[in-house]
Amino acid sequence: MPEGDTLFRIAAGLAPALTGQPVLALVLPKSSQRVAHLVGHRIERVEARGKNLLVFFDEGSVLHTHLRMSGLWHLYRTEDPWRRPPEQATAVIEVPGYLAVCFRAPVTRLLRQSDLARDPQLAALGPDLLGETFDLDEALRRIQEQPDTPLGVAIMDQRAVAGIGNVYKSELLFRQRLDPFAPVRCYPEEELRALLDLARAILVANVQMPSGPWRYESPGQFYRYTRTTREGRVPGRKATMYIQPLGGGRRAGALAVYRRARQACYDCGTLIRMKRQGEAQRSTYFCPQCQPSRREA
């Protein structure tokens, strides 16, 4: 599932081509909703909210997509060939010179802007880590309202705090040396606050990075870097950027724990493990030595 900063960068990549442009065509191939009335209207803005992408139209409609595990957006020049089969498209927006195509998004729907505040999927979102006015106290309160929930599950709950995905979950908890499987009540407020502070700092740093692969050692002592894919979600943009703490012998461009099960921890040499947790059985990668089991007092 894309992380919050991935959606932010997708929105930033689509916005220059779409914002202010008239809609020449709009198709939702997998939906029965009427969309023809939007042709001729202009796109006001493209916005990311947590892991949701919203395209606002000047007549009051909003296109909402959630990519979950399989979805992605591509931006093409009108004459360019698509890099995915047309039957995978769930939304196609044509404006002068460009086609924005969303592929395989499980959630693709048209809403009214006036209904966003009451929409069950969007109104329940917790404070957005990439929001201009992120409310850390509110996010902390929502996490602490789940005292019996394992920490690795609680910080992935978008109703508590929006923007943390599976990669950041594992990397952040390793960075802070926190046990993903201990319930929230095992953690004092200062540890949870520090975790959220770091999460916001890293996501903000990643979306502010200029394009191009590079390595940066910040005062906070973590790597920031990009990696490219053959199917960049927006041409000229990079895929999700990850982070890791600095450590002896660590290689630039390597995640600390994510997808490193049965490989040696860069810090202590213990084999990284993976366990699934939560109703969705999402994978959690951790070092049993660096992240010892948290026992309740």
From TrEMBL:
<keyword id="KW-0511">Multifunctional enzyme</keyword>
<keyword id="KW-0863">Zinc-finger</keyword>
<dbReference type="InterPro" id="IPR012319">
    <property type="entry name" value="FPG_cat"/>
</dbReference>
<dbReference type="GO" id="GO:0006284">
    <property type="term" value="P:base-excision repair"/>
</dbReference>
<dbReference type="Pfam" id="PF06831">
    <property type="entry name" value="H2TH"/>
</dbReference>
<dbReference type="GO" id="GO:0000703">
    <property type="term" value="F:oxidized pyrimidine nucleobase lesion DNA N-glycosylase activity"/>
</dbReference>
<dbReference type="InterPro" id="IPR035937">
    <property type="entry name" value="FPG_N"/>
</dbReference>
<feature type="domain" description="FPG-type">
    <location>
        <begin position="256"/>
        <end position="292"/>
    </location>
</feature>
<keyword id="KW-0234">DNA repair</keyword>
<dbReference type="Pfam" id="PF06827">
    <property type="entry name" value="zf-FPG_IleRS"/>
</dbReference>
<dbReference type="Pfam" id="PF01149">
    <property type="entry name" value="Fapy_DNA_glyco"/>
</dbReference>
<keyword id="KW-0862">Zinc</keyword>
<dbReference type="InterPro" id="IPR015887">
    <property type="entry name" value="DNA_glyclase_Znf_dom_DNA_BS"/>
</dbReference>
<keyword id="KW-0227">DNA damage</keyword>
<keyword id="KW-0479">Metal-binding</keyword>
<feature type="domain" description="Formamidopyrimidine-DNA glycosylase catalytic">
    <location>
        <begin position="2"/>
        <end position="162"/>
    </location>
</feature>
<protein>
    <recommendedName>
        <fullName>DNA-(apurinic or apyrimidinic site) lyase</fullName>
        <ecNumber>4.2.99.18</ecNumber>
    </recommendedName>
</protein>
<dbReference type="InterPro" id="IPR010979">
    <property type="entry name" value="Ribosomal_uS13-like_H2TH"/>
</dbReference>
<dbReference type="GO" id="GO:0140078">
    <property type="term" value="F:class I DNA-(apurinic or apyrimidinic site) endonuclease activity"/>
</dbReference>
<dbReference type="InterPro" id="IPR000214">
    <property type="entry name" value="Znf_DNA_glyclase/AP_lyase"/>
</dbReference>
<keyword id="KW-0238">DNA-binding</keyword>
<dbReference type="InterPro" id="IPR015886">
    <property type="entry name" value="H2TH_FPG"/>
</dbReference>
<keyword id="KW-0326">Glycosidase</keyword>
<keyword id="KW-0378">Hydrolase</keyword>
<comment type="similarity">
    <text>Belongs to the FPG family.</text>
</comment>
<dbReference type="GO" id="GO:0008270">
    <property type="term" value="F:zinc ion binding"/>
</dbReference>
<dbReference type="InterPro" id="IPR044090">
    <property type="entry name" value="Nei2_N"/>
</dbReference>
<dbReference type="InterPro" id="IPR010663">
    <property type="entry name" value="Znf_FPG/IleRS"/>
</dbReference>
<keyword id="KW-0456">Lyase</keyword>
<dbReference type="GO" id="GO:0003684">
    <property type="term" value="F:damaged DNA binding"/>
</dbReference>
